[in-house]
Design brief:
Elements lengths: L1 H9 L4 H9 L4 H6 L2 H5 L5 H15 L2 H39 E11 L4 E3 L9 E6 L4 H12 L4 E2 L2 E2 L3 E6 L12 H8 L4 E9 L3 H20 L10 H10 L2 E5 L73 E8 L3 H8 L4 H4 L3 E7 L13 H18 E2 L5 E2 L7 H18 L8 H9 L6 H8 L2 H12 L6 H10 L11 H15 L2 H11 L9 H8 L3 H7 E2 L6 H16 L2 H12 L9 E6 L9 E3 L4 E5 L5 H14 L8
Parallel strand pairs: 1-7, 8-9, 9-10, 13-14, 14-16
Antiparallel strand pairs: 1-2, 1-3, 4-5, 6-7, 11-12, 15-16
Length: 655
């Protein structure tokens, strides 16, 4: 009865009902015998009647049935637990057994290229190989396995295994101990995966040493006597270059570049007469070594900064004659010119050096462009660099203003200034999209041009129209739009007809001079030498700005032309007169490498290309434009020229 009362109270049955049940002496057995009508007198709610009936039935079940159900459930659970434990033990046993016998590891191949060990990639026969080896393997077994992997049948593309000094090192490039096992190395390092390297180095032979001495003596004769001598087959083209130009050459890879230049044969790179006909790969400066089988040949004449004087005894003997200027070739990757050119010109000696500086472009596929830089390649690099600079480092519409970036510090802004200085000295190229006030402030320390005019070309076309309207007729301008524009430039004064020009002057000074003040401060010390050349900077801007008249007058056609050639020449001039400013810049860059008019004469020639081979061909170094005479009409000519210029993907594949 007590259990029933507790249950009823949990169901929130009124105490009066519970009292009636106690007075009537109604317990579980009596409730089970009642009909629904009889129970309604005690429990009016149907839900309460069902709950009470269920409770009474559970209380009336024999206890033996409950115990049997619990026993059956316990037995099933115990059996399942035993099965799971047995499976876990089996897996653990198998895992422990595997760990006790073998371990997984990685093996790579590093080859000495004359400067240090370089990891060989998969396409050169290297790569990272993963394998499982017994834990008791030692240095000897690992060496045999590595030789089998990287020197199948005892040789690979670099030569026979007998031609190399071999060693096996760990991930720290330390030679392995002969008695230490793989398992012990894993236990001591606590690494989950260890990597080992097979290291190879060419065996030096007496014959090679003799050849090097003979070649060194021959190079001395070339510098001292300037005679036309023939060395070995691998060095003949280089000696021709030295005799012709008397300039030493070394290559400068892009600082921090991860790209690896491809190995090429001499036939892979066609070059002009005054260009070193030897492909190059390494970013470090090496000595002349004609016996080396690598594809990297770099020369220097002994005054390169950063070489330890104590090691100069091992270098090539030098001529006692006075040193001559170097030729530096800057290697940059097409598509990465912006970052790599800034990295190169962080070296302030590039601007003041007597060395001749050229640029070599590397395509995304790892091949060098065939174009030889006698001006055109560098102009093309400048055009691409400044277009990227305008997009990433400036604000403004027609005129641009540098803005501060957290990843551009003093060193990079100074590098940009050196590019401005070097571009003007070498090719008379100036970034004319920068507001003239910017360069005047940086070069001369004061602004001579009209700040308001600069500012109106800095703002958008819509904002410019509103501001110009306010300048001429303040009352007719849209006041709400004017306030919105001034608010964008953080104006803190309410404009009126009397103070509007003063407000405009103040906003122009803040935008063009005050905000880029840090950048101008870094440029001032570097661009000072341009003060005389750019004293009348607005005239320079006007001269560099491409126009139809300038471009048409720069065209030079053959003196005698047939009727077909005359038609094509008319098509070209008609096309140029239809071009807008953007397309004029593209045409100049296609023909001269520069998107500005730098006074180059564009020589027009004609070809017989037709069908699928028909296309305009340009030579930027000599500023040549070759056009096919097989155009049926002007629309065909215009369509083909538009496709060429708008593709904006030009590869210099002609020397």
């Amino acid at each position: 009865m007590d259990e029933l009362i507790c249950f009823l109270r949990e169901r929130n049955i009124p105490e009066t009902t519970i009292k009636r049940l106690e007075d009537d002496k109604i317990d579980v057995s009596v409730l089970l015998l009642m009909t629904d009508d009889q129970m309604r007198s005690y429990f009016p709610s149907y839900g309460d009647r069902l709950a009470v009936m269920g409770f009474c039935r559970r209380q009336s079940e024999p206890p033996c049935r409950k115990s049997k159900l619990f026993e059956r459930l316990k037995s099933k659970l115990s059996k399942r637990q035993k099965t799971d434990n047995s499976q876990t033990e089996a897996q653990t046993t198998r895992k422990n057994t595997s760990q006790r016998t073998v371990r997984k590891l990685e093996i790579g191949w590093m080859h000495h290229d004359g400067q240090g060990f370089v990891q060989m990639r998969a396409k050169k026969g290297g790569g990272t190989r993963k394998l499982s080896v017994p834990k008791d393997w030692k240095r000897e077994e690992l060496m045999e396995e590595a030789i089998r992997l990287f020197f199948p049948n005892g040789k690979n593309s670099h030569g026979n295994v007998s031609e190399f000094e071999l060693d096996i090192t760990n991930y720290q490039e330390v030679s392995l101990d002969k008695e230490t096992t793989v398992g012990e190395m894993y236990n001591s390092s606590k690494l989950t995966m260890m990597r080992f390297y097979l290291t190879t180095k060419k065996v030096e032979r007496e014959e090679e040493t003799q050849n090097e001495e003979e070649i060194s003596e021959t190079i001395e004769d070339v510098h001292s006597n300037n005679q036309d001598q023939s060395l070995t087959t691998s060095s003949s083209s280089m000696n021709d270059f030295i005799q012709a130009s008397d300039i030493d050459v070394f290559f400068v890879e892009s600082p921090g570049s991860d790209a690896v230049s491809p190995l090429q044969s001499n036939e892979d790179l066609n070059v002009a007469d005054d260009y070193l006909n030897v492909p190059f790969q390494s970013s470090s400066t090496t000595l002349v070594d004609y016996s080396d089988t690598s594809d990297v040949v770099t020369i220097f004449n002994g005054d390169i900064i950063g070489i330890d004087e104590q090691n100069l005894d091992d270098t090539v003997p030098l001529s006692p004659e006075p040193t001559v200027p170097h030729k530096k070739i800057l290697v940059v990757h097409r598509g990465q010119i912006f970052t790599e050119l800034i990295a190169h010109f962080c070296d302030e000696t590039l601007v003041h050096t007597r060395s001749e500086i050229e640029v070599k472009l590397l395509l995304p596929n790892g091949q060098y462009e065939m174009g030889h830089d006698v001006g055109g390649v560098f102009r093309d690099c400048l055009s691409e660099f400044w277009q990227e600079f305008y997009d990433q480092c400036t604000l403004g519409n027609n005129f641009k203003v540098p803005f501060l970036r957290h990843d551009f510090g003093k060193e990079k802004w100074e590098s940009v200034a050196r590019i401005i200085l070097f571009g003007w000295k070498k090719e008379k190229y100036l970034p004319i999209k920068l507001a003239p006030a910017i360069l005047q402030q940086a070069i001369q320390g004061s602004v001579k041009s009209d700040l308001i005019d600069n500012f109106l070309k800095y703002v958008s076309e819509n904002e410019r129209a509103v501001l110009e309207t306010c300048s001429t007729d303040f009352c007719s301008a849209d006041q709400e739009e004017l306030l919105e524009i001034l608010d964008n430039y953080s104006c803190r004064r309410i404009p009126t007809e009397e103070n509007f020009k003063q407000i405009l002057q103040e906003l122009a000074h803040k935008t063009l001079i005050q905000e880029p003040a840090y950048v101008l401060g870094q440029w001032a010390g570097i661009l000072g030498p341009l003060s005389k050349d750019l004293e009348e900077i607005e005239e320079v801007y006007c001269a560099l700005q491409p126009t139809v008249r300038k471009i048409v007058r720069s065209l030079k056609f053959p003196e005698t032309m047939n009727i077909h050639q005359k038609d094509i020449s008319k098509h070209l001039t008609t096309y140029l007169r239809e071009c807008d400013a953007k397309r004029q810049s593209l045409f100049l860059r296609f023909c001269t490498g520069s998107d500005l008019f730098i006074g180059k004469i564009i020589t027009v020639d004609f070809t017989d290309l037709k069908g699928f081979e028909r296309r305009p061909v340009a030579h930027t170094c000599g500023c040549f434009l070759r056009l096919s005479v097989h155009y049926d009409n002007y629309p065909d000519f215009r369509s083909e020229m538009n496709k060429i210029l708008e593709s904006n993907v030009w590869v210099m594949d002609i020397v």
